[in-house]
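Table S2 (continued). Query chain:
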Amino acid sequence: MKKNKILENISLFTAGAKGVAIGRSEEGKTVIVSGAVPGDVVNVRVKKSKSKYIEGEVADILEYSEDRVEPKCNHFGVCGGCKWQNMSYEKQLFYKQHEVVNNIKRIGGMDSFEVIPILGSVEQFHYRNKMEFSFSNARWLTQNEVNSAEDISDRNALGFHIPGMWSKILDLKECYLQENPSNELRLAVKSFAEEHQMEFYDVKNQEGFLRTMMLRQNSKGEWMVFFQFYREEKENQQKLFDFVLGKFPQIKTLLFAINPKGNDSVYDLEVQNYYGEGFLMEEMDGLKFKIGVKSFFQTNYKQALELYRKTLEFADLKGGEIVYDLYTGTGTIAQYIARKAKYVIGIESVQEAIDAATAHAKLNGLTNCNFYCGDMKDIFTEDFIAKHPKPDVLVTDPPRDGMHHKVVEQILKLLPPKIVYVSCNSATQARDIALMKDYYEVVKILPVDMFPQTHHVENIALLIRK
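Corresponding output:
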């Protein structure tokens, strides 16, 4: 089947992985369509054709789904951040739960477990506490601008990378992911920089001055601003910093770094503090956390709070348990657990995260936590286990790729009575569960929606040893 062929009158009946809509061709092939909502009837422009499925995009919408809603953001369809903003939130939750349950059954090989209804987010917009924006001197042009004969001089942008096009930046006029003054601050910085003729970064040629801006807030309404500059321009830096601090009194701390590298990663940069203490303090159910520029912290504070509470509830600790917390990060879940457990061992591969976890435990007066740094498959070994008490409960919260097979093998040698598996990717979670199904049964699961308007969903699963 040639590319750009049109498949006509395709009824889309469900949602699939990564937020696509699914239909069937006349021949019975699965048709995967981006940019549509389940319930739409569409003509599909073919982009890829395989023996068992076809991938395409919407050419025409013949009938609109009853589950469609009007997108709130003017950038919808260009910005890749909120792909489900055109679907009712009720249906977003329905398809997220459906995906999780389907993965645990189909990939995980489990068919008898309790499904606790998905925990939706109280806030469907303005729920993120951290946003990162990029400067560019060659903004993404709309199709109308491309087709026009006009010479477009306004090319500066401060916004998001276009999906799949790293050198193209969408100039954001509005964003509904973070509460104000996020929008006002971003727009004010762009306007001030242009007024004072500061150079926006040239992503393609890697030159310029202004590179990125990160905005972070805590639940108290205090803000952190962090700039990356490609080169040092002390006079312009001073002007920009003083302007931002004078206009936005909510800013608690302002930091910057000089970054002449080929990427925007902050982790190997020297962060310099211009104003404030250089960090924000966050509190969750009495636990205090120090959040810096490089700190990992859940971006949806209110849902993270619910996720941690439910994880503790699934663990059902009585006070005398030894708990292992794999992929502990900065030790947030470990410290929730430590207040109910006898002793907690956290393991994580990033040294800065381990340092933060240790500091947070000390800050919170928790003496029954110990944290160890190393690649999980290398440190979580028989030698390690021989030096520590065996766990009564094992909590694991791996990255999207799931657990390394050597880690799963080690868990099966340990055979803890109870595993609480927290995941941001139910497909890899289900894959790992399948590797353990001879020894464990899934008792219950709880999907948690951390990212409304997107297809992403977390899941907590309780596994009990047979």
